[in-house]
């Protein structure tokens, strides 16, 4: 076994960290929070220039052949920087779904994402189905789509959306323009932009249906696992920063004539956070590799375990970070509370703890069947 | 030993419930049911309504205008208030400066300030914490220098809840820096409209404005606004810390939250989701029951005239932890539905729409009023006889 | 509301405490652990003399009309003293079941228990049914009893046993002599004595069947709730002692040149234990009253909540007590570890935490139906 | 980055698995499967068997008789050992005094003592703790006074695991009380059969005899049994604390326990009981996975020659907590079946029959070898740069 990151991944991570340090700050984040439905053109172009738009995708489909591990390295730094630029929402998420769908139409659209021409979002969730992405409530009756999609993470600027729908008993993935739907836009817990879509007998054409049946199921399932791994990467980046900031605060903040880090209870909190962070890093490395495993059962078990663990311990680290910071920790002025929102968000965005515990149990049962 | 309320108490409950049904304004009820916090107008309308009944200052002795209720009656009242969807009373006037005034204040001070509190007309805020005196209050630095018939106050307060709503502030200031830290502190009443006093907002991580910084530059405060003598500030602050607070655990409001959450379980996607939510809620309910019976015991003890002991810290610690756990459960059970932050129209169940904000807001409840760690330090000293 | 114990209960508690202080000690306990199937005649007689044999039962059935609260007061002191004399197992448990059964035969047998003539145990559990006492695996076919009973707490000395059995769909309570069964005797986790019974087509007579059907169900259900309350009382007594001993230890034990109670982490542990103990006391008072409520639903909800809470927090207090005591806490020489065994035992003896959480949920649903 | 074992490592695993299958004695396998602990005879038979393969001292450098395995191989070996139902090796000889001897010992000492350890023939115990020097080891009082060609040792040790089995003890003694506490301590090897040395049993709360008190009255120890120089005891003790322990987290044995528990779920009374148990176990498995991958990382780092850092404490803390939680889950899931303490015939599933004893036994694992609180103190100093 070898836990050293490949040189290439380290380079990608370093570049991401340097780029964000030079081009993004807590102030940029606050500014972005106050914008609605706006994409910062310079930064978006810079990400494209860095090669991030093509990185997540195989060379055979026009990408640069980066691994999930590479993408996690970037997403971790985005999390650490609180960066809201919709790299995951408008590039990785739709792009991977299209790559997994692997049809001529889907690959053509992926091509336009990689080149930066298309702004596509994923609409795979609705509140009736919750996290059960293989059973959406949207209906495809013949050529008509009806129903709702919620929490469509579109960065506020997408002009097309990939939706999942049930066509009879069969899952289908459909690409359609945003303006074919009734759109309500809002901000999410982590500050990112999303939309709710209402589709009222929307007429679609045959070529808008990217794939159906098992192919659609496999694509959505692979997409879900991939996005789960990215959630973990993002939370890890945030937790790393919270831990560092809290340690620094404990070292310097004085109360009762001494640094608060001299209190044993604070010390033990910090030790707990340090140990948890070690384990979160281990789980991230694990899921960054297994989250795109060809073994579907192993892949599902890995992402379920990682997300369940993060929903518990990553959330815990940020909660404790706030508690140790005291009053200033609950203000918008300090980054700590924003990291807490980010981590809470990412712990819920592709399945909460209970959902993943159920998946973990199912994967274990399937594994036993195989064995 | 009797775990039931007396017939009189049951009658009392009935009459309060009826009154709540008829009098809690609809907009306030809806606001609470959504999980949102009342704005200034709602809060003040509600407190004035209670004031008009003589119920706002229910903890006060009758001679100062209290309704003469027992602790049990006050507890029942609070239960009915919460389950009717009305907000808790702001503590600064009723529970804090009021008791200080009728215990330590001059006759003139009582006459001047108590009626406004009693009727819900004067809004107060609390000027305690400073940037470098949070948990360690004794190290506060805001100075009040005697200058003829007034003090000149200079310095800064922070985390001042509702300072932007308040008419008056009660404030700990340093009047003497030559003596031991605690001895040089005095308790001053300051009109928020005095020149030189500036309030700047602090936004909380729920996205709302509850807290403030307050800056004092040569703020003139008449000497008659000093409560007690110079140097008595610490004594008064300690008096308030151990002052009876039968509702400190927040039991009534936790019940309300759990019931809100229960009502939304049917909206969850699958049977498994529902079962898991029910089980998680049941765990919270059991813990609430333990907290509630502990609270009942302190209420009953109060009615027997026993002083509030170390249980008070215990109720605060367990109560705030439970509030946080309930709010976290609401967000996590809501799942996707909890993710929207600023949409008008909820996704699915109304109650999840504000759940994340509430969860964020409540991170503060284990910090303010003496963090739970500080509470444990104090309690440990008592237990270990240190 | 009024949480003052009635004067009578206080007197009973004081008497129990004084009696145990004078007649029982950690040494007596250790001696008793080393005995097998032996009843200390002097102490047993003393308990009879104190009126404990009649206390739990209504005056109308020959008892002294004590409440559950009174019995809890005694059981709490027995727990605090680690006393293994089988007052609950041979008096309260069978006696209450007989009282709840309320038939001429059952009351006649109860009479003999109260007078100290009969030594009867309860056999309501078997490992197939677990804690589901209304559905035992023992079968009553006509006049023949077949099956097993486990963990029959008989103090090692009972000569008769009350067993539950399914007669078709109907629950039945049967009294039979111990020697009608194959008996295997052993010690339990808390040091008490118990037996496993195997019944191989045991012939019984009509009068041995005390009651059947709904009457049997109601009796067993009331018995179960009553015994749950006693479990809590016993755990409370043990926790009270562990807390006191741990506080004292922290005050006096020196390490690193100072008392361990001067370490903030130890202080916070003690505070947590103090607060939990307060809440355990509240739950005990609650369940001591509601555990014999005429309202079956309220009664079940109260005992389920109390046992679930105790299984969590009472166990936690004793675990922390051991941890703070360090090395000496894990030895047989010190009482702390024995309290831990007692509390673990009592947390499992009439339903574990999960079982009671399920009951609590069911009771809540029923309550809603009524309302 | 590669989470798979290499082909060579897989081959290694296969050969070890095969060997275990053929060589773990049946009685030992059954004993472990029951959840019981091996007796002296089993333990020693097993260690001699490993010794005969040259595998007992797998952590030792080849020059002193180690098999030349990488950390990964040792880790794999431990996994296979645990899943075959064989007990872990007693640490006192192999992991403790052995490395001390080949690092600090004289040639004569190495020659005399290492072979016995390597072959599993000499059993060692560790004389560190004293009644008033548990967590605070530096304050130990057992004296060794130089007297010609030997020391006279007087004093008392406590919590001495397996002293009643051991042939030899390595012992911290005070040789100089005029210098700073830590500086006056020396590291001595003591033959357990020396006159004046008395071992008294301490029974643990699992009802078994693992621990002892050891009393020294004018015990004569030849000066050649001093390791290093006088006063080096503390240095040696610290060396051992940071000495690489790739299996400190107990991952392999926790896997074994979880699998045992899994195998018994079908015996639970109802579907609900089974589902709840499965869910509880899944939570433990997820936590184990996080621990295991953290352990993998330290193993891989060891193979790259990196020193064992603060992660070691983290692995110990999380590992012991998880061991305790698994043992508690076993008892609670067993329910009624866990209640019997000393019956031969289990009630229902075999595995629950010893579960309570194991649960009791494992309360010690967060205490011994430096309590988790002490581990956290040490770690905090490193993190905070104190």
UniProtKB/TrEMBL annotation, chains A, C:
Entry keyword annotation includes rRNA-binding: no
The UniProt record lists the keyword Oxidoreductase: yes
Gene Ontology MF terms: acyl-CoA dehydrogenase activity; flavin adenine dinucleotide binding
Family as reported in the entry's similarity comment: Belongs to the acyl-CoA dehydrogenase family.
Domain Acyl-CoA dehydrogenase/oxidase N-terminal intervals: 7-83
Keyword terms: FAD, Flavoprotein, Oxidoreductase
Lineage top rank: taxon: Bacteria
Organism of origin: Alcanivorax hongdengensis A-11-3
Required cofactor names: FAD
Name of the protein this chain belongs to: Acyl-CoA dehydrogenase
Ranges where the Acyl-CoA dehydrogenase/oxidase C-terminal domain occurs: 232-358
Gene3D superfamilies on file: Acyl-CoA dehydrogenase/oxidase, N-terminal domain, Butyryl-CoA Dehydrogenase, subunit A, domain 2, Butyryl-CoA Dehydrogenase, subunit A, domain 3
TrEMBL record, chains B, D:
Domain Acyl-CoA oxidase/dehydrogenase middle, residue spans: 125-219
Keyword Oxidoreductase: yes
Residues annotated as domain Acyl-CoA dehydrogenase/oxidase N-terminal: 7-121
Source organism phylogeny: Bacteria, Pseudomonadati, Pseudomonadota, Gammaproteobacteria, Oceanospirillales
Entry cofactors: FAD
Keyword terms of this UniProt record: FAD, Flavoprotein, Oxidoreductase
Highest taxon listed in the record's lineage: Bacteria
Ranges for domain Acyl-CoA dehydrogenase/oxidase C-terminal: 231-383
GO cellular component, one term: plasma membrane
Family statement drawn from the similarity comment of this UniProt entry: Belongs to the acyl-CoA dehydrogenase family.
Protein name: Acyl-CoA dehydrogenase
Gene Ontology molecular function terms on file: flavin adenine dinucleotide binding; oxidoreductase activity, acting on the CH-CH group of donors
């Amino acid at each position: 076994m070898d836990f050293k990151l490949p040189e290439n991944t380290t380079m990608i991570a370093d570049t991401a960290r340097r780029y964000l340090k030079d081009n993004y700050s807590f102030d940029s984040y606050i500014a972005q929070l106050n914008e609605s439905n706006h994409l910062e053109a310079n930064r978006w172009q810079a990400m494209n220039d860095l090669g991030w738009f093509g990185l997540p995708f195989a060379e055979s489909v026009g990408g640069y052949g980066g691994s999930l591990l590479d993408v996690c390295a970037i997403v971790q730094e985005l999390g650490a920087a609180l960066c809201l630029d919709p790299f995951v929402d408008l590039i990785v998420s739709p792009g991977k779904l299209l790559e997994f769908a692997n049809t001529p139409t889907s690959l053509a659209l992926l091509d336009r994402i990689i080149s930066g021409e298309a702004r596509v979002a994923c609409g795979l969730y609705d509140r009736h189905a919750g996290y059960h992405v293989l059973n959406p409530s949207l209906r495809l009756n013949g050529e008509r789509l009806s129903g709702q999609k919620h929490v469509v993470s579109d960065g506020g600027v997408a002009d097309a959306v990939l939706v999942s729908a049930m066509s009879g008993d069969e899952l289908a993935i459909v690409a359609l323009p945003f303006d074919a739907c009734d759109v309500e836009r809002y901000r999410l817990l982590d500050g990112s932009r999303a939309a709710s879509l209402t589709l009222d007998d929307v007429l679609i054409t045959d070529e808008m249906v990217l794939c159906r049946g098992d192919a659609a199921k496999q694509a959505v399932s692979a997409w879900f696992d991939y996005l789960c791994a990215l959630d973990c990467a993002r939370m890890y980046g945030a937790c790393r920063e919270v831990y560092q900031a809290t340690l620094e605060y404990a070292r310097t903040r004085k109360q009762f004539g001494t640094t608060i880090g001299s209190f044993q209870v604070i010390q033990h909190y910090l030790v707990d956070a340090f140990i948890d962070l070690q384990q979160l890093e281990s789980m991230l490395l694990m899921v960054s590799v297994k989250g795109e495993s060809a073994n579907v059962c192993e892949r599902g078990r890995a992402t379920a375990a990682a997300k369940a663990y993060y929903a518990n311990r990553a959330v815990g680290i940020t909660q404790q970070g706030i508690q140790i910071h005291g009053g200033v920790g609950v203000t918008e002025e300090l980054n700590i509370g924003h990291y807490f929102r980010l981590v809470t968000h990412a712990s819920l965005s592709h399945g909460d703890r209970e959902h993943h515990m159920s998946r973990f149990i199912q994967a274990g049962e399937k594994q036993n069947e195989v064995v | 030993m009797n775990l039931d309320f007396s017939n009189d108490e049951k009658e009392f409950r009935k009459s309060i419930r009826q009154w709540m049904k008829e009098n809690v304004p609809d907009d306030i009820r809806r606001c609470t049911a959504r999980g949102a916090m009342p704005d200034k107008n709602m809060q003040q309308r509600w407190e004035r309504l209670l004031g008009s009944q003589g119920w706002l200052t229910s903890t006060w002795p009758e001679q100062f205008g209290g309704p003469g209720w027992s602790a049990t009656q006050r507890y029942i009242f609070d239960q009915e208030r919460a389950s009717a969807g009305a907000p808790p009373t702001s503590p600064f006037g009723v529970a804090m400066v009021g008791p200080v005034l009728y215990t330590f204040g001059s006759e003139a001070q009582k006459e001047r300030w108590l009626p406004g509190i009693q009727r819900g007309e004067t809004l107060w805020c609390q000027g305690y914490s400073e940037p470098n005196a949070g948990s360690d209050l004794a190290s506060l630095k805001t100075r009040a220098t005697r200058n003829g018939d007034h003090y000149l106050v200079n310095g800064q307060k922070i985390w001042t809840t509702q300072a932007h709503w308040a008419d008056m502030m009660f404030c700990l200031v340093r009047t003497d820096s030559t003596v031991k830290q605690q001895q040089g502190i005095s308790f001053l009443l300051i009109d928020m409209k005095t020149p030189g006093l500036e309030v700047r907002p602090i936004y909380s991580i729920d996205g709302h404005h509850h807290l403030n910084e307050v800056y004092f530059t040569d703020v003139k405060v008449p000497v008659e606004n000093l409560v007690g003598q110079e140097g008595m500030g610490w004594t008064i602050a300690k008096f308030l810390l151990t002052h009876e607070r039968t509702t400190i655990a927040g039991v009534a409001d936790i019940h309300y939250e759990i019931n809100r959450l229960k009502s939304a379980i049917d909206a969850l996607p699958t049977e498994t989701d529902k079962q898991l939510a029910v089980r998680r809620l049941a765990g919270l309910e059991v813990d609430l029951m333990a907290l509630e019976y502990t609270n009942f015991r302190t209420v009953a003890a109060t009615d027997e005239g026993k002083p509030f002991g170390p249980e008070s810290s215990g109720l605060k610690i367990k109560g705030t932890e439970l509030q946080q756990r309930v709010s976290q459960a609401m967000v996590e059970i809501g799942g996707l539905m909890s993710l929207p932050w600023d949409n008008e129209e909820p996704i699915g169940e109304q109650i999840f729409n504000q759940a994340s904000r509430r969860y964020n807001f409540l991170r503060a409840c284990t910090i303010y009023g003496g963090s739970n760690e500080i509470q444990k330090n104090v309690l440990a000293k008592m237990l270990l006889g240190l």
